[in-house]
Amino acid sequence: MYQRLLSKDLSRSRAFCILGARGVGKTTLVRDFASQFSNWIHLDLETESDREIFQSGPPYEETLKAISFLKGKEIRGNGTLIVLDEIGLCEEAIRWVERQARSATGEVAVTKGPFFVATSSIVTEKLEMLVNPENGIMQAHHLYPFSFEEFLPLMDDPASLEAFREVPVPYYAYEKLLNYFHLYALIGGMPEITSEYTATRHLSGLKNIYERIEESFINGLQLVTSGLKSRNLAVEVFQNTFPYAATRIRFNRFGNLEKGSREISRAFKALERALILQMIYPVTSATLPLWPDSSKFPRLQLLDTGLVNYFSGIQKPLFQSHDMNAVFEGQIARQVVGQEILAAERPGAWNGLHPGLSTAGSTPALNFWIRNKAQSTAEVDFVIPYYGLLIPVVVKSGEPGRLRSLHQFMDIAPHAYAVRLYAGKVAVQQTQTILGKKFYLMNLPYFLAGKIRDHLGGFRKYVEG
């Protein structure tokens, strides 16, 4: 039985809310967490009957009694877990949780009450306040599709998982892990997809599941749009996003839709609120803190690479490739690497953003770099804050001397560390930029994209000798 990596971060010390798109396994994860309690009560706030419990805004204790009565379960103080599934759909439930927290701090004597957790597949303004990292009542945890580390146990190959977790990865495991990663990138990490593939080991049976997942996303867009017209546009934009995964976009007439920047931008923001994608804005500095520039064209990071491959019709060329960097100019490699970096972010980790800046629902941020110069095309795929440094990460094949954009970043960086993800093996080499600055390049197979931070420590020790 697999275990989500996020489960290690869930504790009874603080109420929390699991945020994630439909179908990533939020409810399953909460059910596993519930085993720590003597009993638990599940409220499905997608249903009108459960939402009605909170509609009249009764006192906190009265609502608890109503929950106990209507669900037929005794509330045994902090031995009881109350799950508010899809809390983003019920503002009254959000306000009730806020009132409960204020009471617990002394306004009303509430002691030994039940423990609360929530889930949501949308991020509203009210929910953002509930999970705000500075003064929110609940801690936000983000759940994504399976990462590669979560996918590996499904292959029933414990030795490969053990080798993957070694730092550095042993040379003899490279080929097998690379093959597994190509399979992972091909089908993606949506739990229903991986479950079906694990059972059958055939791609042919996945078609209906991909399309069912798309349909569930489309149905959910009515929850983050106002009116049929805006919903229909959000659906059109969503269905046009797949070929643009991991590429920079313009809003005006996106996907050849006859719509202007303002309308398209609103549609993309709705897709972000449904946690289907992120719009990543570039930074232009090689130092911290990060200042994403929203005046520049953003890059799209979609939820799942398997969905991208299926709906873009590129499963076959990817299946036949031995190097993802060679497929569609490295687009799929960037998408899956971004997915892995996001999944590896731990809750509460400082993402390097300038104080005062935040992302929707405290979503862990991806960042990339562009040169702040007119007509320049220099672009570094990702930048990662690491102990006060901003480390550049490129997803490319070829000799270091051909990584021109990386050279331009390193020329202005106050350090000499860079990372390259490719289809090769782990290696460290000293090289220099075109202008002659010496720097060290850590080459990692791209199946280690989620383990970059783990390897950076050894990389710096090796360089510093």
Task: Kindly describe this structure.
The chain has 465 residues and is of the alpha/beta class. It has 2 domains: 9-142, P-loop containing nucleotide triphosphate hydrolases (Rossmann fold); 204-464, no CATH class. 37% of the residues lie in helices and 15% in strands. The chain is built from 17 helices and 14 strands. The chain has helices spanning 26-33, 48-55, 60-71, 91-107, 125-130, 148-151, 158-164, 174-187, 191-200, 207-220, 228-239, 261-273, 305-312, 315-319, 331-344, 404-412, 452-464, and strands at residues 16-19, 39-44, 80-85, 115-120, 139-142, 277-280, 299-302, 369-370, 379-380, 382-386, 389-395, 417-422, 427-432, 438-445. The chain has a 5-stranded parallel beta sheet with strand order 2-3-4-1-5, with helices on both faces. A 5-stranded mixed beta sheet has the order 10-11-12-14-13, sandwiched between helices. Strands 6-7 form a two-stranded antiparallel sheet. Helix 8 (174-187) packs across helix 13 (305-312) and helix 11 packs across helix 12 (261-273). The two termini are 42 Å apart. Residues 105-111 and 348-361 have low confidence and may be disordered.
